[in-house]
Amino acid sequence: MSNLSLKGSILIILAGVLWGTTGTSQGLAPVGVSSSTVGSMRLIIAGVFFTILLILTKDYPKKNLRKEDLFFLIVGTLSVVFYQLSFFYGVRISGVAVGTLIGIGSSPMWGGLLGYLFLGEKPAKIWYLSTFLAILGLIFLSFIDISSLHINFTGVLLMLLAGFTYVVYSLCAKKLMTKFHANFVMAVYFMGGGILMMPVLFMNDMSWLLSLRGSILMIHLGIFATFLAYILFSRGLMLVPVSKATTLSLSEPLTASILGITVLGERVTMMNIIGIFLIFTSLLLLSRKS
């Protein structure tokens, strides 16, 4: 593995770590705050910061946008929005454990399939083993009593859509970043996504934003867990294949589980410990030096 590939792997793992703080942050949020409202605010804040960054760095397109470029910008932006909506409603319908397992667990498979079909990225042999271990770890991490499990078909479809749209905007971003600067691509994605999600804010109570806890929550989620995380992710995505990036980003549920146990005091089982170990092993295998 080259030094650039290793650097890309580390950047994506760090992005996943920042994403993984989202659940813990929302667990400390003011009572009654809607997840869809938080998701909308995340996009808007990140979009504003990406736009400011774009203006400061002047990383505007050096060439005219072609129809193909506009297509990838529009599809990528819509994918960001559909990811937020499908993940939020999918988790609400199918439950956190099953929803997260299907949504995040399906993304490496979508990444391998779509990356090969549309970018010609053939996954390395180690990717198959690492992805298998990561998904197995995710199953252990989300382990629930099978006898009490009720599968909701609509919820499953929504979570599969969430995993799919996550990979689609990653693919579109990677395609666009071969021509345009990452700051421009991310500014369009998140500013556009934030504008499209704004109606959600008008349908919910936003008074919690004026509280100290609410303000701190959104500063963290908007700036650190979204803006900074996607700076790292976009830079890493330029250096590694999409299939590898989607597997490496499973550092997100790994971080979320560790924080849930240490910060929120969630109960830990032997199954959870095995899951953490398997995902950690998967990330080490996939980001190792040759």
From TrEMBL:
Ranges for the EamA domain? 7-142, 154-287
Q: Does the keyword Transmembrane helix apply?
A: yes
Task: Give the InterPro entries listed for this entry.
Answer: AA-Vitamin_Transporters, EamA_dom, EmrE-like
Q: How does it sit in the membrane?
A: Multi-pass membrane protein
Q: Which UniProt keywords apply?
A: Cell membrane, Membrane, Transmembrane, Transmembrane helix
Transmembrane segment boundaries: 37-57, 69-90, 96-119, 126-144, 150-172, 184-202, 214-233, 245-264, 270-287
Q: What is its main location?
A: membrane
Gene Ontology CC entries for this record? plasma membrane
Location in the cell reads: Cell membrane
Q: What is this protein called?
A: EamA family transporter
Which organism was this protein described from? Answer: Calditerrivibrio nitroreducens
